Amino acid sequence: MPVTHTQVGCPYCGASCDDLEVVVSDDGKEILEVRNACAIGNEIFHHATKPGRVTRPRLRQEDGTHKEISYDEAVDYAAKVMIEAKKPLIYGFGSTNCEAMAAIGRVAEKGGAVLDNCASICHGPSFLAIFDNGYPSCTLGEVKNRADVVLFWGCNPMHAHPRHASRYSVFPRGFFTRRGHKNRFVICIDPRETDTAKISNLHLMVNQGHDYDLFNAFRTALRGHEIPEEVAGVPREQILEGVDAMKKARFISIFYGMGLCHTDGRNHNVDIAISLTRDLNAITKATIMAMRGHYNIAGPGQVWSWSYGFPYCIDLSKGSVAHMNPGDTSSIDLAMRNDCDAFFNIGTDAGAHFPIEAVKKLRKHPWITIDPNICMASEIADLHIPVAVVGVEEGGVVYRMDNVPIQFKKVIEPPEGVISDEELFNRIYMRMCELTETEPVWIHHPALDVAKAVTEE
Ligand code: SF4
Questions:
Q1: Is the pLDDT at 444 greater than 50, yes or no?
Q2: Span from the CA of 390 to the centroid of ligand 1 (angstroms)
Q3: Ligand 1 pocket residue status of 37, Cβ below 6 Å
Q4: Which of 161, 169, 291 to mutate to test ligand 1, by most ligand atoms within 8 A of the CB atom?
Q5: Chain segment 28-65, per-residue pLDDT in tens
Q6: How far apart are CA 431 and CA 79, in angstroms?
Q7: What span, in angstroms and rounded, lies between the C-alpha atoms of 313 and 211?
Q8: Total-model pTM
Q9: Which residue has the higher pLDDT, 318 or 197?
Q10: CA-to-CA distance for 184 and 145, rounded, in angstroms?
């Protein structure tokens, strides 16, 4: 009899939907059906069981081909690279669980590495603004139940987070929003007429790179002052219509994406967005939230903040002191300065997302990719170590875009012999201890209990 798993988490976008139902064949090897997921989420589950999956580590040979090696050999290779490098860079983590993020921390400490995550090239400017100006946010549950004005600024959830609107922000009926979409006024601020703009009540087509001006106009109008006839390409009437809707709202939710934090102004745009939220709170209740991209890219921000005090760009090369200085300790900057001499790409694709010059510089040094799938980063790596797919073949804790932790489930077994990220990092750490003839540091933490079990085996 096929088994139906309920309340399954989706390991794709930052909406981290946890209401999926996955029907698995009675031998537990095949995924027969995925319910409730969007098309992208559906594909993630079915992709895991498609033929052609890499199931053993592959080491690049001198002639450029890859040769399969055992996990023990791969662990030994990775541990040696980590020990021999003066300043290894460990980057990625959009697509793995928090247990693995905790486990890699010990590898990074032991190797004196720089620990960075995808925020370095996406919502890093948001972190800088949040450090300066706070983060008056809420949960997506509150958005569903309370928000009667929803503002999407520089984001397009209809494509990037396909169930965001239907599950949390626009269409669902909540406790105080019983008529769903009819209870909400949706504003979209975007230079293009996106599909999110099409479901909005008001679309302000801001000139590219002029978001800061428009925020200023909103704040000025909100305080009752005159604004020019047009600001950032948006007519005054439209700005006043948006401000008027906000003034009448009981609960405003502002969502913003890379269109805000990666256009001219960057962290200053997010800073003024937070200031607008604060201004609105003098009149009504208002909240703001970053549209995080991957299903657990909020995770490293949590795990590493409680471990090191910083969410990203964490330099552990100075011994027991962690320090963070984006622009100096951020991945691209390190790569461009040739300031790291080994690269670990984990649960992301730096080969596809980094500027080509940075990739070329990183490729001069040992490059290890840890990822379940073949991607550009796996194909240019010296060593590719495949791992189990979190959320499909491995459970664990993930943080949704609103920083709510969710326990993801395992629904099928990984291919025979394929191990999890967490186990891999624990094994690399234990091998580094063996090679350096040092005692493993022991801290009571569920992730480290696994390390002990691995050692005892
Ligand atoms: Fe998965 Fe995102 Fe689609 Fe939800 S919206 S099912 S998390 S891809």
A1: no
A2: 14
A3: yes
A4: 161
A5: 889 999 999 999 999 999 999 888 899 999 999 999 99
A6: 6
A7: 27
A8: 0.94
A9: 197
A10: 11
CA of residue 56 to ligand 1 center, whole Å: 29
- Mean pLDDT across the chain, nearest whole number? 95
Domain 58-122+295-456 falls under CATH 3.40.50.740? yes
pLDDT, residue 455, reads: 47
- Single-letter amino acid, residue 391: G
Lookup result for tokens 């796996």: 378
Q: Ligand 1 pocket, 297 CB below 6 A?
A: no
In whole angstroms, give the CA distance from residue 107 to residue 103: 7
Rounded-to-integer distance, Cα 249 and Cα 430, Å: 56
- Are the C-beta atoms of 250 and 302 separated by less than 8 Å? no
Q: Specify the pLDDT at position 28.
A: 85
* Ligand 1 pocket member 161 (CB < 6 A): yes
| Interatomic CA distance for residues 431 and 442, integer angstroms | 15
Section 62-89 average pLDDT:
97
Residues in the chain: 457
Our answer on whether the CB atom of 12 is closer than 6 Å to any ligand 1 atom is yes
Atom of ligand 1 nearest to the CA of 161: 5
What is the mean predicted confidence (pLDDT) over 431-442? Answer: 91
What digits encode the pLDDT tens for the residues 374-392?
999 999 999 999 999 999 9
- CB distance 240 to ligand 1 below 6 Å: no
Cβ-in-10-Å burial (0-12, 13-18, 19+) of 95 comes to buried
Question: For residue 62, how far is the Cα from the chain centroid?
Answer: 35
Tell me what pLDDT residue 441 has. 80
Residue 321's CB is within 10 A of a number of other CB atoms, namely: 9
Give the CATH number of domain 124-290: 3.40.228.10
> Residue 449 pLDDT more than 90?
no
3-state DSSP: the chain helix, strand, coil percent, rounded to 5?
A: 40, 20, 40
Rg (CA), the chain: 23
Q: Which atom of ligand 1 is nearest to the CA of 13?
A: 2
Annotate 137-168 with DSSP letters as a single string. Answer: ---HHHHHHH-SEEEEES--HHHHSTTHIIII
Q: Which of 8, 13, 404 to mutate to test the pocket of ligand 1 (most atoms within 8 A of CB)?
A: 13
Residue 129 has pLDDT above 80, yes or no: yes
CB of 165 within 6 A of ligand 1: the answer is no
Atom 6 (ligand 1): residue with closest C-alpha? 37
- Ligand 1 centroid–CA 295 distance in Å is 8
Residue 340, ligand 1, Cβ within 6 A: no
